[in-house]
Amino acid sequence: MRTSGQExxxxxxxxxxxxxxxxxxxxxxxxxxxxxxxxxxxxEMGKRWTAHDFPTTNWDARRWLWxxxxxxxxxxxxxLFRHVMVLSGNAVGGGSITYANALLVPPExxxxxxxxxxxxxxxxxxxxxxxIAEKMLGVTENKMLGEADLRLKKMAEQQDxxxxxxxxxxxxxxxPNGEPGGRTYADPYFGGEGPERGTCIGCGGCMVGCKHNAKxxxxxxxxxxAEKRGAQVFAETKVVDVRPLNGKEDGSDGYEVFTERSxxxxxxxxxxxxxxxxxxxxxxxxxxxxxFQLKNSGSLPxxxxxxxxxxxxxxxxxxxxxxxxxxxxxxxxxxxxxxVYIDARTHIGAVRYPEGSDATGLMMTLLSGGRAxxxxxxxxxxxxxxxxxxxxRVHNPIGFARQTVLFVVMQTVDxxxxxxxxxxxxxxxxxxxxxxxxxxxxxxxxxNAFLEKGAKALGxxxxxxxTEILFNIPTTAHCMGGCAMAxxxxxxxxxxxxxxxxxxxxxxxxxxxxxxxxGVNPSLTIAALTEHAMAHIPANSPSTSxxxxxxxxxxxxxx
Length: 559
Fold this sequence. Notes:
Elements: E1 2-3, E2 15-20, H1 24-35, E3 40-43, H2 61-64, E4 66-67, E5 72-73, E6 76-80, E7 85-89, H3 122-137, E8 139-141, H4 147-158, E9 165-167, E10 169-171, E11 184-185, E12 197-198, H5 222-228, E13 232-234, E14 237-244, E15 255-261, E16 271-280, H6 284-297, E17 317-322, E18 338-343, E19 346-351, E20 364-366, H7 374-386, H8 388-395, H9 400-403, E21 404-411, E22 418-424, E23 427-436, H10 445-458, E24 461-465, H11 466-471, E25 475-476, E26 506-508, H12 523-535
Parallel strand pairs: 2-3, 2-16, 3-13, 7-25, 16-26
Antiparallel strand pairs: 1-16, 4-5, 6-7, 8-10, 9-18, 11-12, 14-15, 15-16, 17-21, 17-24, 18-19, 19-21, 20-24, 22-23
Helix pairs in contact: 1-5, 1-12, 3-12, 4-10
């Protein structure tokens, strides 16, 4: 490792692999690589969190939101583009720190769509990797249905889709039968190799950080075990450049990775690491933006021109129902506790915030109909004027979390935008990631109809995001694609093993590799596809790469 200003030499590598990012792709990569006998460094822009550090509610914006330019070093990021608003996690452990804890296998039909179709027999290959990821992440059926889940079930039954309701598949440590939640147990997952864990109390706090040690975040499984075996995690560190070593443009001699402090204004603590191989796992937006920068600067000019193409939002919409009565709390349960398929392509999942985390209520308003655009704004204004009492209740954030069931609606419908790297009129000093292309659907009529009927039957008020109404853009917590898998660089950025075209010793393992709308939370699929990618990397030295006791793994496929 070199600090800024040190002379470049032919000194040995600092690591065999540098992994950029510690989310579902990065953490899986780190464990599997260190198990195979490689030295691994993980570069993570976000902070490391413990149960004691998390904000009590999301009103504590400084510890909830990630806006380092304003000295807000939380774990929740929001980025507004012309076509979509993207929500994501930013921490050691990536999105697992703040996601709703839902881990679902998508319909098999997704493998027949997009650029990854026909690259291999995905339907035959992927089940084993899903099974490995599920075991590692401790996925189980939700045992703690809360009032929010039960109201979704009632809505489904009233609209003749009750048979399609299901308890969520969640990464949560529940108490043994007959035992209360909130107790501490020795590692229940990895034969004693993992950390102590606490059992879930059903507070609904998964998305503002689990304070009870019950959520199976990546820093308690994949990443924990990787660090235990020698992987080094560099938190609050941002990668700013990646250059091939020794003038070998294809990276055959390895790479030098340049970093700086992500949470500092002035003392950037710039340094660099030399590695044989690099894995980009910085989330779909993070990896796309970094690769655009490296391609544009000339550091990695061979990156495919297909970069940024076909970025998908999971055809997603975020809506909800607010129940003004104070008799029952909607906060109880696991954040992503249950779901229902209202048709073959549309999944609705119930999510919630813990009591007191009402800041999200500032972003919500009355749901209104009408065509997208100014027609819908007029319809919304008319709704506010003709239902003033309902409007006042909805726009009062106090009590929002206790009173509101949020619904994440996702579809397998294929729709996408492109991302470009260019200067904007409002930011002429540098290039930025910008969305481009035809507008994608702002809302899902079938889901809104389901919501309005259910709200009317149960005495609730249907709500949606203000950005959806005012800016005519959807919101997604599951931005995917941009580094598509394909059979050639003219049609994608990487091959079916996640290896980047044009370079040796370079992989992409995060949401940017997803090449179709999944219609469910993509976290499990990212983990499974990364397991698949790591299985194609041979062991460095079989004598020095024993697997951790109790850690399931895929047999290495030598290539």
